[in-house]
Amino acid sequence: MQWQEHRTFGNLPACSAPTPPVPLLPTRPAYPSMPRILPTLVVAQFFCTSLWFAGNAVAPDIAAQLHLPPSFVATLTSAVQLGFITGTLTFALLALADRFSPSRVFCASALLAAACNLGVNMVGIGATELLALRFLTGFFLAGIYPVGMKIAADYFEAGLGRSLGFLVGALVLGTAFPHLLRAATAQLPWQYVTGATSALALLGGTALVLLVPDGPYRRAGQQLRLTAFLAGFREPAFRAAAFGYFGHMWELYTFWAFVPVLLAAYNHLHPGAALPVPLLSFLIIGVGSLACVGSGLLSQKLGPRPVATAALALSGLCCVASPLVLGSGSVALLLGFLFFWGVVVVADSPLFSTLVARHAPAASRGTSLTIVNCLGFALTIASIQLTNWLGHFLAPPYLLLPLAVGPALGLVGLLRGRNTPADFNN
């Protein structure tokens, strides 16, 4: 077969030349399989936040070893909270989660928090060193909990309430887990609890940085702006969500901190009851993890704002009703009430975080979440210390009644805020 010569007419070829390839537009970088992101985040959050109440679970053992008064439990809890507040303020001012890779910030914080938690096991440690280490553990937890929510928001714009429901549920379960560890290792030295929780935090931080890169919706803030954390508070919807969260936080951690105290007080008044305090503390606090998942799923149908409002109102009613139930002397009523309270007291937590994340400026979302956490946890110190002080004047059944102030003010702030479609969409 012979090829024929192509003839040209003027400057036009008889057959056109091959069309050059069209350059491809830049594409978004490839991300890992989305189904693995949320489970990895949840497990990492659970492992790392087990550090939070590791000191509380062994506080009676430490107090006995160091010859400290029973009120030392509240002091130990406040040390962690104060560290967390200082950490969140530092992270917010420096905008670390917005300027740098959130996954790397999470991992570094997990490793440092685990080291501080493990330091409690040092031989010859005193009360001052113990409180300092718990303070530092709380400081580095500021790079775990709010940064984990930031990572979730960078991946899941749709269905954020459901995602944060699982994530905050992991926090709740991690918070309760040291009590279960203590119940399971009752015959072993208390150092096993702090050692185990530190090992879990190491695993969680490492897994997150290896398996969860920065999300597709992340907008990195490249410049340091010390006032970036104030940007969200200029928006009425953001302020309403934040004030609702503050009212919720006034109640939450004080309830968690005093659950073992209330159970121990019941055992003291009714010696025949012999309630297993560590195990019941784990179950009452841990049931909140299911509530967070359930409220997140429910928000898919009803929206985060209505569900959060209902949960906050129910937990406020529990505060008001607490003297009647805690003073009744009925084991069944006591445990049923505490389990119900354990559900509603935290069911609104992921939904407030969802509302805060949605109404925060995109470029400072991580900083906004962090500063709201900072202010909320500052309230927990005041609440815990006030409740501890009132314990000298009030009988145990009346101890948690003043917590009703938080949900009441939170509801006022939430209901006075301006509604937006994001408050009712999934």
From TrEMBL:
Spell out where the chain crosses the membrane.
37-59, 71-96, 105-125, 131-152, 164-184, 190-212, 252-269, 275-298, 307-326, 332-357, 369-391, 397-415
In which domain of life is the source organism classified?
Answer: Bacteria
* KW Transmembrane (keyword) present: yes
Which key words tag this protein in UniProt?
Membrane, Transmembrane, Transmembrane helix
Start and end residues of each Major facilitator superfamily (MFS) profile domain: 37-426
PROSITE patterns referenced in this protein's UniProt entry, alphabetically: MFS (PS50850)
* Family annotation (Pfam families): MFS_1
Q: Does Membrane appear among the keywords?
A: yes
Query: Can you say what this protein is called?
Result: Membrane protein
What organism, scientifically named, is this protein from? Hymenobacter glacieicola
